[in-house]
Amino acid sequence: MSVKIIKVEKELPEYSRETADILPLVEDWLEGKDDRFRRKIKKIFEGAGVDKRYSIMSPEEVFSATSFEDKNNIYVREVKKLGKNVLQKALKNSNWDPKSLDYIITVSCTGIMIPSLDAYLINELELNQNITRLPVTEMGCAAGISGMIYAFNFLKANPGKRAAIVAVESPTATFQLGDFSMANMVSAAIFGDGAACVLLSSEENVSGPKIIAEEMYHFFNATHLMGFHLTNHGLQMILDESVPETIAEHFPNIVHPFLEKNNSDIGKVQHLIFHPGGKKIVQTVSTLFGNLGKNIDDTREVLRLYGNMSSVTVLYVLERFLNKDIPEGDQGLMLSFGPGFSAQRILLQW
After folding, report:
1. For residues 87 and 9, what is the distance between their CA atoms, to the nearest angstrom?
2. DSSP annotation of 209
C-alpha cells in the first residue's frame, strides 16, 4: 500500500496589483516619515523578488485604517469562497465525488474563525457526513507540508481512502497600518494571498508521485524567530532577521540524515520543492543547494509571480512539478520552514 498525490489545484483572490503600482500607496502610507527611512522601505519593496501579489481586499482597503474585526470579517468571508472554489475544482478535475472524501484538513494562520473552514466546506459541498476533519491553524508557512504529513499518516493507516488538504491564507488581512517595524515592512513587501488544494489517496491503481517518507525537525530555543503577536489591532508579524542564518546553520541536519534514513541522498533527489519564504531565505537555501549541484528555480518563480502566501506557497511550487513530464523513479524533496521554529520535509518518488 502506498500514498500518492493525485492532484494539486490553486485559486487566487479577485484583487491583484503589480509591485510597481503598490509603491505610490506605500509612499502615501509613509508620508511624514524620515526621507531616509522612506527610501529604505521603497528599496525593500523593489528588491523583494515579488513582481505581483494577490489580495482578498483591494490595495486601497489594505492601506486603510480598518479594525481587526473588519479585516477578520473580510478574511472569513473570502476564505470560505476560496476554499470552496479550490476544493471543488480539485474534486471535479480528478473525477472524485465530494462524498468520496474520507479526510479533510484545512490550513490557515492569517485569521480567526470558529467553526473552522472545514465545517463550512462539509456543508457547502455536501461532503460525507462521517468525514474526519482536522483544522491546522498555528503552524504558519510550514503548514502546507504539515497538512500533507497528517494526511499521509491517516492514509497510511487506512488503505483505500481519500484525503484533501485545503490551504487558504490572507497575510494582507494581518497588515498593521500603525506598525512601522522592519518586520511589518518586510512582510508587507513579500506576502500575498492565495489558496491551494492537494488530493491524496491510499487506493490501489492510482497514478501520481508516491510519498516515501515525512519528518518534522524542530529547532530548540527558537520560538522567537517567527509568528504572530495578537494585539488590539490584529495579528502583528514577528519575523527575526536571523532566520536565514539559523536555517543555514541547521541545514545539514535537516536534509542529510532524513534522506539517509530513507535510503536516499541529495545526489538521488532530482527535484527540490521548497517554500519561498522571502528573497533572503530563497538566496540562502539556493546557495546551500547550489553547493550540492541543485537549483530551486521553481521556488524563485512562484515568489516572483505570487509572493509568499504562507502555508499555500509550497503547494504552488508542487503544482508546477506535477505539471512537468518527470521520469518514473525520480525523487523530489519538499521542504518548508515555519514558527516553532521548525522544518517540515516530505520525500517523493515519481
Report:
1. 8
2. P
Reply yes or no on whether the pLDDT at 206 is more than 80: yes
Distance CA 32, CA 50 (A): 26
What percent of the chain has a predicted confidence (pLDDT) above 90?
62
pLDDT at position 256, please?
92
- For cell 542564518, the residue is 245
What's the domain range around 86? 4-201
Same domain, 167 and 271: no
- Return d(Cα 303, Cα 309) in angstroms, integer: 9
- What's the whole-number mean pLDDT along residues 168-181? 89
Number of folded domains that form the chain: 2
Cα dist from 227 to 42, 105, 137, 138, 310, whole Å: 24, 21, 12, 9, 11
pLDDT of residue 330: 95
Residues 217 and 181 occupy one common structural domain: no
Phi, psi of 216 (to 5 degrees): -110, 140
H or E element, residue 235: strand 234-239
On whether both 311 and 269 belong to a single domain, the answer is yes
Which CATH number covers residue 315?
3.40.47.10
